[in-house]
Amino acid sequence: MPIEHIFQIHRSPCKTVLAITGGGAEIIGELLRHGSGSATLLDAVVPYSTDAMDRFLGRKPEKYCSEKTARLMAMVAYQRALGLSKANEFAGQEIIGIGATCKLKAENEREGRKHEIHVAIQADCKTGVSSLELTADRTREEEEKIAALLIFNVLARHCVVSEIDLSDVIETGEGKNEEVIEKYEFVSRPVGDLLKQRKISQDNNYETLSMARINLKEPEAFEEPGEPGEPEKIRLVFPGSFDPCHRNHILMAILASEKLGEPVHFEISLTNVDKPPIDFISLNQRLDSLRIHKNENFMGGICLTNAPLFLQKADLFPDSTFIIGADTFNRLFDAKYYGGTVNIPAILKHFKEKNIRFLVFHRKSTEFCINPDVPELCEIVSLDEYEDDGTSSTEIRRKCENV
């Protein structure tokens, strides 16, 4: 790749962490071999084994080489870049994370094995991914070069540097089907800032909390005009990942709204306790699954937060009732869920001080583990009132991936 393009990237106000697995790692050498690499590269990691990938992501991915895994890698890289760039010396710099996962030609590989490259980028208000399936017969070295070039182009585009024309190395046109497929999602500044506001406050033992409201009347709008949040007007909250929202979620929301006479506000925390934050492509997919119900009577709105724990949600939504399932209820009053850092009396005290109640729905094959001090905070909806058909978001995602 042209040296002048490398130096143009180094002159851009961009600081990045690269995470690469399966191929394309030579891009690291290209960025460093000519000098001035520290102007761009904060860190580079190559979690090549499955154990290394699991540790890097903090979880075992559904697939090691996929668009989704590339986005997870980019998000972890972005969070690492934020952590490395907090010093004043990086003021004014643009922070990004890039994740790349590849499945390239291997010795004695099975017949029909797909060769694919997925490169994702995570910035403060943008998630993007470029995917390429290689169908022509090439050497491993040739495929490695293509992977490195695709990673370079994703970085170059963000730095407003000319991309390298891939038409000389991939086969397109009549009878050829090698094509770079791209997806990008952008969010407003208040939503992007939710991923950055992770400073530990002196008053609390957890992150500074924030919230952004979704404007359901405008499909592309991620916050309402004026001051975001207004939690004092929200009385009924349904927290969840909604990946995607499905039949059981909606039945729970309808019944809760009828019982309490309040509209339901769905809450999604972009940050998680034990998983990478939600990227903006995944976020928009989840929002789409909720937006289709925007005109129904039970719908109050959608709130995005950086509050993964219910203790934190209680601070954002005081004087509210939370809609939860039996499995969440069991974790909620289990000290292990909080890593042993709090005890049950402290949890109960916090919820009582914030005037929080819980509307708990039975789930199939889930037994309640009820602490004797808990019932006064809860109303349990029996299976006689609510029919759980066993539908799960995980099963829906698996079916969609197999289509």
From TrEMBL:
Name of the protein in its database record: Cytidyltransferase-like domain-containing protein
Originating organism: Methanosarcina mazei (strain ATCC BAA-159 / DSM 3647 / Goe1 / Go1 / JCM 11833 / OCM 88) (Methanosarcina frisia)
Pfam families: CTP_transf_like
Single GO MF annotation: ATP hydrolysis activity
Every Cytidyltransferase-like domain range: 237-398
InterPro entries registered for this protein in UniProt: CinA-like_C, Cyt_trans-like, Rossmann-like_a/b/a_fold
Coiled coil: none
GO cellular component, one term: cytoplasm
